[in-house]
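ARCHIVE RECORD
Type: protein–small molecule complex
Small molecule: zinc ion
Source of inputs: curated submission
Record status: active
Notes field left blank by submitter.
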Amino acid sequence: MSDLKTIKIYCLNCRTLLYRYYKRGKGSLVKCYVDRIKNDYTAGDLRCPNCGIEFAKPRMIHGKPAYKIIGGKVFIKS
Ligand SMILES: [Zn+2]
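STRUCTURE (tokenized, with ligand):
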């Protein structure tokens, strides 16, 4: 678990902070496992709480509940 680091996930449209998330490894963010979300600043509806854009879809990935990020809707910072 030592390769997990905390990142911040923002809405690309309005730069609102959506999640703090424990991400594994390098590379782009294509999915969020629900149990690795550290802080959730949304209403839990996979929409930006500020501008209302839908940024992800719920999916089961490797048998775990996850949010599949919609391309071009978010950006991340370390
Ligand atoms: Zn937004």
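CURATOR ANNOTATION: DSSP finds no helices and seven strands in the chain.
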